[in-house]
């Protein structure tokens, strides 16, 4: 017998979307999402990580039935996105980047209204609002207008609104964008709690630490396509070797580039890149043995070293390995 847990909650194949921009001679086509294949299991927190313009929001909007795909297929909670949109909508919650709270309405009123819009009866809507205020830690502000809330409180109201009808799948677009670290941690806790209740969460982020700490599995998207997919740990393991970063005392670009050339020629260095901040990033097999050789090579070339650090691979290293660019700089 198949356990519900084994069933994919989101399955896409060849999903794509292009936009026409400009007019006349300036007309161009942007392939925002270029043939996406992915599977998200029930109860997973799945993160879509990528730089600005990678196609994250476009994907989310297609999966949430807000934007018609140009091609490909998707099945969400067992319903075909193309032919059973109403059923898809019943099964999902969608929280857009800017959120949807009104300034002059209280959280309690918003929650009751949202539940009523989902066809839930008056008494049940009120009791769901009370439960949501409690579980999202909002009871203390429940009867104040949303305009008086902090960014973190408002974000929690957004999420509470998105799940008031108890969807199977929750889509969150950049859930912690612009929040302070404490509020971000609070939102992460709420997302984990929803997973604990069996919800599948699909979120977009351009924060590496968010993808690493919160997501069970991630897909790294760039230029409308997936460049890497797996658990954060497995993706980092896939980067064989280690990274050494080197700062040179003279911060001029010419010196950093000269150091890059010198170090790229060392046997222990697999690749050398000068970052925009002037720091050199070196891919090496074993940091402990490479570091003394790097120091010696720089000394021989008359370049004074300011800092040298050894790093375990990060998701940024995964992105760099797959795209040749750093996510931080994209
Ligand atoms: N309505 C539109 N018309 C024209 N181009 C669009 C439209 N919506 C998105 N695009 C383009 O499609 C590409 C993908 O955009 P999308 O918003 O999906 O990226 P994103 O990964 O969500 O970025 P961000 O992190 O900045 O939100 C971008 O090049 C964007 O400029």
TrEMBL record:
Record's InterPro entries?
AAA+_ATPase (IPR003593), ABC_transporter-like_ATP-bd (IPR003439), ABC_transporter-like_CS (IPR017871), DrrA (IPR005894), DrrA1/2-like_C (IPR025302), P-loop_NTPase (IPR027417)
Q: Identify its membrane topology class.
A: Peripheral membrane protein
A GO CC term? plasma membrane
Q: What is its main location?
A: membrane
Give a yes or no for keyword Transmembrane helix in this entry. no
The chain positions of domain ABC transporter read: 10-248
Checking SMART domains in the record gives: AAA (SM00382)
Q: Keyword annotations for this protein? A: ATP-binding, Nucleotide-binding, Transport
Note the PANTHER family from the entry.
Answer: ABC TRANSPORTER (PTHR43582:SF5), LINEARMYCIN RESISTANCE ATP-BINDING PROTEIN LNRL (PTHR43582)
Q: Which family does it belong to?
A: Belongs to the ABC transporter superfamily. Drug exporter-1 (DrugE1) (TC 3.A.1.105) family.
Q: By what name is this protein known?
A: ABC-2 type transport system ATP-binding protein
């Amino acid at each position: 017998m198949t356990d519900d847990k084994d069933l994919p909650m989101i399955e896409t194949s060849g999903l794509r979307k292009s936009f026409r921009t400009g007019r006349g001679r300036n007309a161009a086509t942007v392939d925002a999402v270029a043939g996406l294949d992915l599977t998200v299991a029930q109860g997973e927190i799945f993160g879509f990580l990528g730089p600005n313009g990678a196609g994250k929001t476009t994907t989310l909007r297609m999966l949430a039935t807000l934007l018609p795909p140009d091609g490909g297929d998707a099945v969400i909670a067992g319903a075909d996105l193309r032919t059973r949109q109403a059923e898809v909508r019943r099964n999902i919650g969608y929280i857009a980047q800017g959120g949807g709270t009104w300034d002059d309405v209280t959280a309690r009123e918003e929650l009751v209204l949202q539940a009523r819009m989902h066809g839930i009866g008056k008494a049940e809507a009120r009791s769901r609002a009370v439960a949501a205020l409690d579980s999202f830690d909002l009871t203390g502000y429940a009867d104040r207008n949303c305009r008086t809330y902090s960014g973190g409180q408002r974000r929690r109201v957004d999420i509470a609104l998105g799940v008031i009808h108890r969807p199977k799948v929750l889509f969150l677009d950049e859930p912690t964008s612009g929040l302070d670290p404490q509020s971000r941690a609070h939102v992460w806790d709420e997302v984990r709690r929803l997973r604990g209740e069996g919800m599948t969460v699909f979120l977009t982020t351009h924060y590496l630490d968010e993808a690493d700490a919160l997501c069970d599995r991630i897909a790294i998207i760039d230029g409308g396509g997936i460049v890497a997919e797996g658990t954060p740990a497995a993706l980092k393991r896939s980067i064989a070797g280690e990274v050494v970063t080197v700062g040179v005392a003279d911060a001029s670009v010419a010196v950093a580039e000269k150091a890059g050339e010198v170090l790229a020629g060392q046997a222990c260095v697999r690749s050398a890149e000068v970052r925009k901040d002037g720091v050199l990033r070196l891919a090496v097999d074993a940091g402990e043995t490479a570091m003394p050789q790097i120091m010696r090579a720089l000394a021989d070339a008359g370049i004074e070293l300011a800092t040298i650090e050894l790093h375990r691979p990060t998701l940024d290293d995964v992105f760099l390995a797959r795209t040749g660019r750093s996510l931080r700089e994209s």
